[in-house]
Every structure is written in structure tokens, then in C-alpha cells.
Amino acid sequence: MAKNLQIGVLSLQGSVREHISMLSNIKNVKPLEVKSLPSLESVDGIILPGGESTTISKLLIDFGLFEPLKQKIKQGLPVWGTCAGMILLAKDVIDENPHLDLMNITVRRNAYGRQINSFTVVEDIPAISEQRIPLIFIRAPWIENAGKDVEVLCYLDKHIVAAKEKNMLVTSFHPELTNCLAVHQYFIEKMIRVGENKK
Predict the structure, then answer these.
(1) Can you tell me the distance from the alpha carbon of 199 to that of 195, in angstroms, rounded to the nearest whole number?
(2) Where is the binding site, in residues?
(3) Whose CA is closest to 188, among 39, 38, 27, 70?
């Protein structure tokens, strides 16, 4: 029987409740809001949600979580950044703001325009699901450059919108705003449970 996993959602700002709700629908998963060091220490993996990347990065510093989170990820904690979370994880961000400087990608903030330019498409991402997946983009970034160790999972109109590197997964889009659990399940099964089995 699969071990119960405690999956954290960084809960300083952004689409926290939506991720918590999605995780609550997955068997053997217990979601946990992370906004303190003890909660960060107790999770098997963490989601950095969509929201406002500048605000989240400032709150990470204010709550004393910026460096501890960075070190936990460096040490192998599985992490998934959606939209703003992707910006936080990037090594390079066009229109610089404080970020964790971890994943070997260059990200353009608000690449798809303002909130009024939000849109939804349905795409095939074979690495994640056998079924087509709805992708919701809201003031979304894209990846302009990916380093040699980064595995690109999805392009949209020649721009990278999903990728992973070691224990880090990023998506420009918001799976937590859909009814599709595929990306959450991929994060849990392929990035957390696989890591657990290698210990």
C-alpha cells in the first residue's frame, strides 16, 4: 500500500485554496498549508502557487522562509511552481525581481499579456497524461531559454510552458483552476513517490 504523503502548498499569497482542494481529491495525499518553518520541515513535496511573484518573494523574506525553502529544494525536496511559482524558481527572470535562483531557465514575466488576455487551450502533454489537458493562462510567463539539464514537457506556439529539472517542475498554466488532476498526480507519482523509492 502506498505511503500517505504530506504535500505542502506555500500559503502566503495566490491560488492556495485551489491547490489544496485538488490535492484533497487524490488518494493517500494530505495537503498542508506552508507558512512557517515547522510546516516546511514536515512536507514530502511543495507547490509554489500562482499569484503575484514579487509579493510572494517579499513575503518569503518577511516570514523567514526564503533561504530555508531554497536550501530544502537544493537538498532535493520536490517542488512544483505554477505561473508565479515558475518565476520564483527560475535562475534568470527578465524584468528582474527577487527569486529563488534554482532552476536553469530564463523566464519572461507576464509574457502572455494582462489579465484581460487570459485564455484556455487543450493540449497533449504525453509525459504527463494520455488524455489531452486543459491549460489556463492568466498573466502567464513563458520560458525563453532552458538549460541542458532541463526537460521540456510542453510547447505552446513555440514557447516553453512546462518543464522539469531534477526535483523541480514548472508550468506557466494553472491546473488548479481546472477539474483535471493529471498534473497534480504527475507531480506526486513521478516526482515524489519515485524519489521516495530511491531512498
Answers:
(1) 7
(2) 51-53, 109, 138-139
(3) 27
CATH code of 184's domain: 3.40.50.880
Q: Could you say which DSSP state residue 119 is in? A: E
Nearest to 49 by CA among 74, 73, 25, 20: 20
What is the distance between the alpha carbons of residues 109 and 94, in angstroms, rounded to a whole number? 7
Domain count, the chain: 1
Please list the pLDDT of the chain residue by residue as tens digits (199 residues). 467 899 999 999 999 999 999 999 999 999 999 999 999 999 999 999 998 888 999 999 999 999 999 999 999 999 999 999 999 999 999 876 678 999 999 998 877 766 656 889 999 999 999 999 999 998 889 999 999 899 999 999 899 999 999 999 999 999 999 999 999 999 999 888 766 665 5
Q: What is the DSSP string of 37-104?
A: HHHHHT-SEEEE-SS-HHHHHHHHHHTT-HHHHHHHHHTT--EEEETHHHHHHEEEEES-------EE
Task: Yes or no: say if 4 and 30 are a contact pair by the CB < 8 Å rule.
Answer: yes
Active site residues: 83, 174, 176
Positions at the binding site for L-glutamine: 51-53, 109, 138-139
Q: pTM value? A: 0.93
Say how far apart CA 193 and CA 182 lie, in whole Å. Answer: 15
Segments forming the whole domain that contains residue 187 = 5-198
Helices (H) and strands (E) in the chain, counts: 7, 12
